[in-house]
Amino acid sequence: MEEEKEAVMVTPGEVLGRTSDVKAGRGAYAALHNNTVYASLTGFRHTVPPAPDSSDLRPTVEVTGHKAHGPVPQPGSVVIARVTKVMARSASADIMCVGPKSVREKFTGIIRQQDVRATEIDKVDMHLSFHPGDIVRALVLSLGDARAYFLSTAKNELGVVSAESIAGATMVPVSWTEMQCPLTGQIEQRKVAKAAS
Amino acid sequence: METDRPDGRTPNQLRPLACSCSILHRAHGSASWAQGETKVLAAVYGPKAGTKKNENPEKASIEVIWKPKTGQIGKLEKEYEMILKRTLESICIRTIYPNTTTSVIVQVVHDDGALLPCAINAACTALVDAGIPLKHLAVAICCSVTDSGCIILDPTKEEEEKMKAYINLVFPNTIVSVLPERSSQVGSEPMAHGIMTSVTQGAMSVDDYLHCLDRGRAASARLSEFVRKNIGPKSTWLGRMGFLCR
Questions:
Q1: What does the pLDDT read at residue B190?
Q2: How large is the average pLDDT for residues A98-120?
Q3: Beta-carbon separation of A10 and B178 below 8 A
Q4: Contact B129 A67 (CB under 8 A)
Q5: Residues of B in contact with A35 (CB under 8 A)
Q6: Is any Cβ of chain A less than 8 angstroms from the Cβ of B28?
Q7: Which residue range or ranges hold the Exosome complex component CSL4 C-terminal domain (chain A) (predicted)?
Q8: Please, which residues 60-99 of chain A have a Cβ atom closer than 8 Å to chain B?
Q9: What 3-state class would DSSP assign to A181?
Q10: Which residues from chain A sit within 8 angstroms of residue B179, using beta carbons?
Q11: Structural domain tally of chain B?
Q12: Which residues on B lie below 8 Å from A37 (Cβ)?
């Protein structure tokens, strides 16, 4: 099945197909009461053929070319955040990016002691894992409470990606738990994210 | 039953419509909507983190702030805020981003009658401009009943004051299909005959109410057409139209 050649402009509420024929993708939603797929955004109707190895042979219908609102952190998404406050059992961070996109609004995240690393979680010292101002890559665990999202750095590729030393230079990771200042040579403790190879 | 109107319109004729989008740069979405001399500016900010105390954190919440042209916000404005909030909540897909709040700020630029429908149309257009996922669009219209029982659409302020009753109606946009057969029905179900919001001021008979619904629905079909023609994936747009609803 080829992609549609002619772009059809749609507005929210317009019928894009039946759930028996198509799947709802971005900018579309399926109404279960009448098995119909409707547009939820203004843009162009775009049909994506199913993957060759997919068991579901229905194409996905999407609405593209619309003005998107700012990204919102969701459980499972990888975010970039700046640590604002470190306490004995948790650290607070302001989420700056969700995936590759920067957020428009301020979203706050909390990294709890048990979510810093996967092993020996009871021995984690928050002050030796993060410092205020550190840039961390983290995974959104859940919506958390009304104030903040719960974040986790309990994977090799998650943790501090950029940090400044006391001297003000950007430190270089030397191990999974240490970063070194290039100016003074001083080593500081961090939960370091493994660099992408 | 015909009636003369001060501005020379027929009872079924709407005032000229004007609409423009993305007019505020700091807002995530914005729209200005004018019906004759009545003009409203709406701005959308969000989704922002967190919901208020009494809101359900498992759904996204809508916050409406009404800014009058002059002076402090009063009882009527609070009522408008509540009506607008409930109307917008019914068209937004609130399960996509739980525990977030989208703020809609409505600024009255000028009030020359049918203010609430104008505000609803502006807010809905601003939500579209902000890229907030909606189940469908909403189109609002004001119908009023004269002492002689004649129904007129889109009254001015002067006309509103003389009417025995008027009603603000909000309908879902007339749904069209982009399927090859261009069917206006899905299965055996008629597409859009619903009513989302109905706010009545004054006393009217059931027959008058039903007549208002019919007239309002006819006008909403034209409004839907206007909105659909003018909103698109463009940064700004401007449309002007005067209607005579048959």
A1: 42
A2: 84
A3: yes
A4: yes
A5: 187
A6: yes
A7: 102-143
A8: 65-70, 72, 74
A9: coil
A10: 15-17
A11: 1
A12: none
Q: Are A194 and A157 in contact (CB under 8 A)?
A: yes
**Pair of tokens at residue B228:** 């659909």
| Counted domains in chain A | 2
Give me the residue from B50, B228, B231 closest to A146, CB to CB: B50
Among B218, B205, B195, smallest CA distance to B164 is for B205
pLDDT above 70 as % of chain A: 90
**Six-digit token string for A187:** 């080593």
Q: Is A55 within the bounds of a domain?
A: yes
Chain A touched by B27 (CB under 8 Å): no
Q: In what order do the strands lie in the sheet with B38-49?
A: B61-67, B100-110, B38-49, B29-35, B13-21, B238-244
B29-67 residue pLDDT tens: 999 989 888 989 899 987 878 776 667 777 888 889 998
Q: Has residue A87 been placed in a domain?
A: yes
The sign of the torsion formed by the CA atoms of B214, A12, B31, B237 equals negative
Query: Of A38, A45, A69, which has the smallest distance from its Cβ to B131's Cβ?
Result: A69
The more confident residue out of A44 and A9 is A44
Domain range for A180: 78-189
- Domain of B126 in residue numbering reads as 13-230
* Statement to judge: residues A143 and A176 lie in one domain: yes
A94 Cβ contact list (under 8 Å, min separation 6): A81, A82, A84, A106, A107, A108, A109
Instruction: Supply the CATH number for residue B55's domain.
Output: 3.30.230.70
